[in-house]
Amino acid sequence: MAMCEVCGNDYHLAFEVRTANGTHVFDSFECAIQKLAPACEHCGVRVVGHGVEVGRSIYCCAHCARQEGAGGIVDHV
Hints:
Layout: E1 2-3, E2 10-11, E3 15-19, E4 22-26, H1 29-36, E5 52-54, E6 57-59, H2 62-67
Antiparallel strand pairs: 1-2, 3-4, 5-6
């Protein structure tokens, strides 16, 4: 069995995620998201979808990007 690097659970269905910076072991998608997904620069929510990039900042939505001063940003509906 492999141990999750976020919660420490030793789980027989743990899985690996390979990134440009290495290989990570998790017991759930929840732990993988907590470790790997970026956080919105405005509200702190983890960005699991596409998000909005403004310069080097990532936001969960256009609203949060606008709240931080980004102009011309719109959500796709």
